[in-house]
Design goal:
The protein is an alpha/beta fold and about 160 residues long. About 25% of the residues lie in helices and about 20% in strands. The longest helix is centred in the middle third of the chain and has 11 residues.
């Protein structure tokens, strides 16, 4: 695959919603993207979940130790380093994306080329798959599934 316009980098530790997260990314109507999954030394069998998808856009890496447990910033920066796209979308193992998500993002990227970071609307989903479309602050979302976009232009780091 030549360098895609977008790279989804998915930092994974939990298995609960990983399959749904991957499926929601792969079902995007806009197709010019890669999906990089970084297993953050999870005790769960994430590889089997990832291997169940036969898609050339997926690349899988596994950390030797749990980086996110020490520093989330370092883990995200490590994930971003694998990205080949012009833009990076930071995803998690419990994020879900609408199928037109990337199509809509592409319109915004073209409309606002001077913007370096975008953050998308959050939709909470609990383990019973109930949805809450209210604007809940991100810090309150720790135990819920969420739809979150952080789009970073290539060669930018999340934090230094």
């Amino acid at each position: 695959m030549s360098n895609p316009k977008y790279s989804f980098v998915l930092s994974a530790y939990k298995a609960d919603f990983l399959k749904e997260a991957i499926k929601s990314i792969l079902s995007q109507t806009y197709r010019d993207f890669e999906l990089i999954i970084v297993n953050d030394a999870s005790p769960y069998d994430l590889y089997s979940i990832v291997a169940s998808f036969r898609d050339d856009r997926i690349t899988y890496y596994k950390n030797k130790s749990n980086e996110g447990g020490k520093s989330l910033v370092n883990q995200w920066n490590k994930c971003i380093e694998y990205a080949k796209g012009t833009y990076t979308i930071m995803a998690s193992d419990d994020d879900l994306y609408d199928s037109k998500f990337l199509e809509n993002v592409d319109v915004l990227v073209d409309k606002y080329p001077h913007v370096n970071v975008l953050r998308g609307r959050v939709v909470r989903i609990d383990k019973k798959k109930r949805r809450d479309r209210l604007g809940i602050p991100f810090k309150r979302m720790a135990i819920s599934r969420r739809l979150l976009l952080v789009l970073v232009k290539r060669n930018n780091r999340l934090f230094s």
